[in-house]
Amino acid sequence: MSGGFDRLLDSVVRIDVRELNFEDGARRIDASIGSGVILSRDGLILTNAHVAGPKAVEINVTLSNLERVGAKLVGWDHWTDLSLLRINLDDAKRRGLQFKHAEFGDSEKLYVGEVVYAVGTPHGLTRTVTRGIISNNNRYFEDTEGVDGYETGNFNTWLQTDAAINPGNSGGPLVTEDGRVVGITSRAYLGANNLGFAIPAETARRVVAGLVRDGSITRSYVGIVLKALQDLEGFYDVATNSGVLVDSVEAGSPAATAGLRAGDVVLAIDGKKVDGRFPEQLPPIQNQIASQPVGSSLVLDYKRGSRELSATLVTARLDSRMGEEWVSDPWGIGVRKVSSAFARENQLTDETGVLVIGVQRGFPAEVAGLARGDIITKINQVPVTSLDAMRQIDAQYAAKPGPTLFEVQRDRRVTLVVLKP
Amino acid sequence: MRLRFLLLAAAPLLAGRAAAADLPALWAARVKCTVAVEYVTQTELERRPSVAYGTVVDGAGTIILPSAAIDLRVSPKQLRDFKVYLPGDPEGYPSEYLGRDAYTGWHFVRAGAAVRSRLVPITAFARPGAPPAGLADEIWGIGLRNKDEDFTPYILQSHVALLQSLPQVTAIAQQEVSGPGLPVFDRDGTFVGLGASSFGQTFLEFSGAERDGAPVMLVNLEESSAFLVAGEVLPYVGRVPTNPVGRPLAWLGAYGLEPMDREVATFLKLSSQSGAVVSEVLPGSPAEAAGLKAHDIILAVGGQPLPRFKPDRVVVDYLERLIAVRAPGDSMTLTVLRGGARLDVTAKLADEPRLVREADRTYFERIGFTAREFVYGDAIARHASTTGETGVVAHLVKPNSPADIAGLHPDDWIREIDGVEVGDFASAVARLDAIEKDQLRPETVFLVRRGSDTAVLRIKLR
What we know:
The complex is a heterodimer.
Chain A: H1 3-9, E1 12-21, E2 28-38, E3 44-47, E4 56-62, E5 68-77, E6 82-87, H2 89-94, E7 115-120, E8 128-139, E9 158-161, E10 173-175, E11 181-188, E12 196-200, H3 201-214, E13 220-221, E14 224-227, H4 233-236, E15 244-249, H5 254-257, E16 265-269, E17 272-273, H6 282-290, E18 297-304, E19 307-314, E20 316-317, E21 325-328, E22 333-337, H7 340-345, E23 354-359, H8 364-367, E24 375-379, E25 382-383, H9 387-399, E26 404-410, E27 413-419
Antiparallel strand pairs in A: 1-2, 1-4, 2-3, 3-6, 4-5, 5-6, 7-8, 7-10, 8-9, 9-12, 10-11, 11-12, 13-20, 14-15, 15-16, 16-17, 16-18, 18-19, 21-22, 22-23, 23-24, 24-25, 24-26, 26-27
Chain B: H1 2-20, H2 23-30, E1 34-42, E2 47-56, E3 62-65, E4 79-85, E5 92-94, E6 96-100, E7 107-110, H3 113-116, E8 138-144, E9 153-165, E10 169-173, E11 183-186, E12 191-195, E13 201-205, E14 214-218, E15 226-229, E16 250-251, E17 254-259, H4 262-267, E18 276-281, H5 286-290, E19 297-301, E20 304-305, H6 314-324, E21 331-338, E22 341-348, E23 350-351, E24 361-364, E25 369-373, H7 376-381, E26 392-397, H8 402-405, E27 413-417, E28 420-421, H9 425-437, E29 443-450, E30 453-460
Antiparallel strand pairs in B: 1-2, 1-4, 2-3, 3-7, 4-5, 6-7, 8-9, 8-11, 9-10, 10-15, 11-12, 12-15, 13-14, 16-23, 17-18, 18-19, 19-20, 19-21, 21-22, 24-25, 25-26, 26-27, 27-28, 27-29, 29-30
């Protein structure tokens, strides 16, 4: 193999993560193993968002020389399933630990059939190299579940490879023979033979730059769900290879305010023609919208019936359906703040309330009949507008336990329950 | 001494009872009050026969069936071919479905003229002023075998184990005492109640995988150990509906009533009574006009506090029956708790908006789906405006039809057809009809709403 490939092998790490989860209504530590690749001399490691995210309480990295060193989260972006970590450099320096770093290759130039290697820690087997080819360099798939509930994949297509990818490979690099990173291995179809997927380096490079700069990626949201026009050009009377179909418009979104409707065909965004004939073409269009600064104006030229119209949208900040999580120990209840995206998806009137994600058996919340999926809208008749509000009441309860009245929404039904010490 | 006197007094009574009634004879006379009713649910794709048990309530051949006998989601127009079978007689006699009464929940059927003279109403065995069934009373009832055994009647015997308000006074026997919908009698042959739907009973199921036993709940559909006492039956047998849906239907428009449990009542210092939380107040409803608000807790109706029931959720049925017993136009004064203050609201009940069951439907064979009129309840279910909304609902999608292949789902709300907004039901039917008849047409495009999403569906017809 090339010198570059040897260097790459020395930059791949095993990542052990201990994560705090509240889904049982208590603080539970879950441990998992993933892979990552060192990107810089100052110890930046790129991995998957589903390997290490904000819930991580302890991250340990095993370098190629088998030495272990701690790391911290720099930032994550679940939309592209990428996370950036930094090695504890003081510790590494004190112990004289050496590591190398990898270079990105050009994922745009990959051709189908090109030989690639996946390097990682499948099932905990460190520094495993598997070989395959690029099976598809522009794979689109809809992923409504996302990663642990976090939305993923709307803004990029994937590299598909037949290099063997197993659990634990996640976050490891997909590289060419010269050892350049062309993708970050992120998932595979379980039960299938060698259908693995990686985030292209082109996407990763942009996300890394943003995470280094801001610690997070801010995107714009307009509230339209696009669909490929595929064969509907005739029906909508638009030229082939032009326009993209608006499949749905989210209520209360900037697009809805500007008057867009499902069934409209968007022809141009800010004067730039769009082509959404095939599903593979949707992520770049979505990315074009998302890349605008929040609050900027976008001009959409669109077609409705035989009329050509134009609308100006002011973008809002893209929000995840997953809000912040927290657990109340005395009540035995894990909750997640209702976000605007969650409220919209579930047709709630507003963002008031927290979603119950877990209850601990035998604790006051479970005894009172609260269950996963309930939305707590009021405590002691005061609306729960933030996790802080709930934390305050919880602290009062911890100091002086007494019966506490919860108003809970289950589907569309409102119930009152009393939590007793 | 006193004890001996009691024994002496009791002896002739017991002797008298034993001699009073020949149970097989009593049973044979009372079997004439019972029938099996067979009907067919005819959908676009299939005919599905069902059987229920009923009790004759008057001399005109009127029969009542329990609420569960007919699925309420089915349109009355799809209920066909009602036949009455006499116990032990293989012949089915064509009969008529009269409808469902909202207050009792009973379905009413009228036996055909050919068979009426062979029926005896249950009122013939009712004794006005008779004491209600009491704890430990000996009781017996009638069961009917299945159709392949000509609905042969048989006898069931038990004792009253418990009386509960659910909210109707319901007796629970030690074991099964009648078929659901069939009568129960005391030892003298007096009608004491009507078999209710049976309760689920929990059993442990053992299997190779579950050696410790997994709890399963079983419901006996043929026999029941619960019955409504005669006082909850006889006063209401005359509530024969004049139309299948049982209109007029008194409507308040307080949606999602949820019981206030004991802990909450205590917390709110209302421990002596019960209440019901209003989840939503429906737009355009009498509740809205009266100023009822979502999250109000209803504490009293007409000044009478809502009583406490076991289990707590019975209060919802109690409240719903207080509405159902009234008529559109009647007033109902509710005392509610709102943000710590008590206040009264008086609603003038209205006739309930057109139900999904009543909505018009048309089946389109070539496209492969049934279009259903968009009614009030559809708007509520979809958080949509209840006035001025158009479109039709996909009620049934035929498997492997063009509509199914294009991804149309039942309950999809069709807003546009071929890029043109769908108007009312009649105009939608006219357009779909034209599409079906146009043999040259290659496709049609629906814009549908599903939950908070919309989808454009391209239905290929050729």
